[in-house]
Design brief:
Elements: E1 2-8, E2 12-17, H1 22-28, E3 46-51, E4 54-55, H2 59-63, H3 66-70, E5 73-75, E6 80-81, E7 85-88, E8 101-114, E9 117-123, E10 137-141, E11 147-151, E12 161-167, H4 173-179, E13 191-198, E14 211-216, H5 220-233, E15 239-245, H6 254-263, E16 267-273, E17 285-286, H7 289-296, E18 304-308, H8 311-325, E19 332-335
Parallel strand pairs: 1-7, 14-15, 14-18, 15-16, 16-17, 18-19
Antiparallel strand pairs: 1-2, 3-5, 3-7, 4-6, 8-9, 8-13, 9-12, 10-11, 10-13
The structure holds FE2/S2 (inorganic) cluster.
FE2/S2 (inorganic) cluster binds next to loops.
């Protein structure tokens, strides 16, 4: 049995097979709704059901505020229709040459840039250009079928080489492999299976609003890809990067961010440290990274914000920027950072 879903305001329609989620069916029909984690953790896929019945799953009640639930909002990556549905969602226009596909990938380089951060370079098959938007992510498919998501830290390149920043989660099957903490260690030239690109975290280039990039830890990765794309296209858009970490070493590519600020006319960089120790001799900004943004830019009503990092940081930023600084919720773009899923 299948059901028809109609998206408003576009009035686009697609079919959902029994048991399939609204998001999966939409993507299969080349209708891209906003999404990131695909596992009910980030709320990027939040949208309103106007009519019809569906199984919501447990996650909306955990991460959406009660007033959203009362108004009919749910998570489309979890919702499984049990009748025809009418939904309200912002569709995202993707270039037609961006296709999600599975492919083998060869590990070309492993570079440990901090105690717990590995930079991996992956070679994707050269025969077919791998098209994606800077800021999107790919998934490793493990032998047992489990998947791990990582943002691409480089913009699309003719040589189909992609860079990823992987944080070690002790006890995590995949990252123990990457860091050699388990039975085997990832090696240069080994083959992995990946699928992508996924996600709707990329720069909206049809806007000229000033941009605030907000990152914690390896949430820097997709923002690096976006900024490198801005450099490649000669973007003059005003942008500021706030990158937060507990200790200065957490800002593992600080020198690159500083270089952007020196060489890009409309770009600035604010590193923020929350738990500096005396031996760090840190003389820069202290505290929570999203609070540094609020202090510097108390009125965000004319901005776009792109946030990636720990869920607590992203959630706090969304809440405080919208409630205290007048940011439109539609102009807050976030990427899920669900690496805790790796600790199984
Ligand atoms: S909660 Fe649905 S994409 Fe993250």
């Amino acid at each position: 049995m299948s059901f028809k879903v109609t998206v408003f305001p576009s009035k686009h329609e697609f079919q959902v097979e029994e048991g399939q989620t609204v998001l999966d069916a939409a993507l299969a029909a080349d209708i891209v709704l906003p999404y990131s984690c695909r596992n009910g953790a980030c709320s990027t896929c939040k949208g309103k059901v106007l009519s019809g019945s569906y199984e919501a799953g447990p996650n909306p009640a955990h991460i959406l505020p009660p007033e959203d639930l009362d108004q009919g909002y749910t998570l489309f990556c979890q919702a499984r229709p049990t009748s025809d549905l009418q939904i309200e969602a912002h569709e995202i226009r993707m270039a037609s040459d961006i296709q999600i596909r599975k492919m083998p990938a060869r590990v070309m380089a492993l570079d440990k840039v901090a105690d717990d951060v590995m930079v991996i370079k992956l070679q994707l098959p050269a025969a077919d250009p791998f098209r994606y938007y800077a800021g999107q992510y790919l998934e490793f498919i493990m032998r047992d079928g489990r998947r791990r998501s990582y943002s691409m830290a480089s913009p699309p390149a003719d040589n189909n080489l992609v860079e990823l920043h992987i944080r070690h989660m002790a006890g995590g099957a995949f990252t123990d492999h990457v860091f050699g903490a388990g039975e085997t260690q990832m090696k240069v030239r080994e083959i992995q299976r990946v699928e992508g690109p996924f996600g709707s975290f990329f720069l909206r280039e049809d806007s000229d609003k000033p941009v605030v990039f907000l990152a914690s830890g390896t949430g820097f990765a997709p923002i690096k890809a976006i900024v490198e794309r801005m450099i490649a296209t000669g973007s003059q858009r005003q942008a500021v990067l706030y990158w937060g970490g507990r200790r200065p070493a957490d800002l593992y590519m600080d020198a690159i961010a500083r270089q952007w600020a020196e060489t890009m006319p409309n770009f600035s960089y604010v590193p923020v440290i929350s738990e500096a120790l005396p031996e760090d001799a840190w003389s820069g900004r202290n505290g929570f990274v999203h609070l540094a943004v609020l202090k510097d830019i108390p009125d965000l009503s004319g901005h776009q914000v792109y946030a990636c990092g720990a869920p607590v940081m992203v959630d706090s930023a969304r809440r405080d920027f919208c409630a205290q600084a007048g940011l439109s919720e539609d102009e807050f773009y976030a990427d899920a950072f669900t690496t805790e899923a790796d600790a199984v």
